[in-house]
Amino acid sequence: MTTIPDRTLAAVVRAFGEPIGIEEVPVPPTVEAGGLLVEVVACSLCGTDVHCWEGSLALDIRLPLILGHEMVGRIVAIGEGADVDSVGQDLRVGDRVIWTHSFCGRCEMCTRKRPAMCLKRTAYGHVSMQEWPYLMGGFARHSYVLPGSGRVRVPETIPDALASMASCALRSVVNAVEQAGRVGPEHTVVVQGAGPLGILATGLFAQAGAGRVVTVGAPAARLQLATEFGADEVISLEDTPDPADRLARVREATDGLGADLVAEFSGHPAAFAEGVEMAGLGARYLVVGQLGSGTTPIAPGTITKKNLTVIGSFSGDVSHYHKALTVLERYADRLPFDRLISGQYPLDQVNDVISRMQAFQEIKPVLLPAATS
Question: Domain named Alcohol dehydrogenase-like N-terminal: which ranges (predicted)?
Answer without folding.
Answer: 33-149
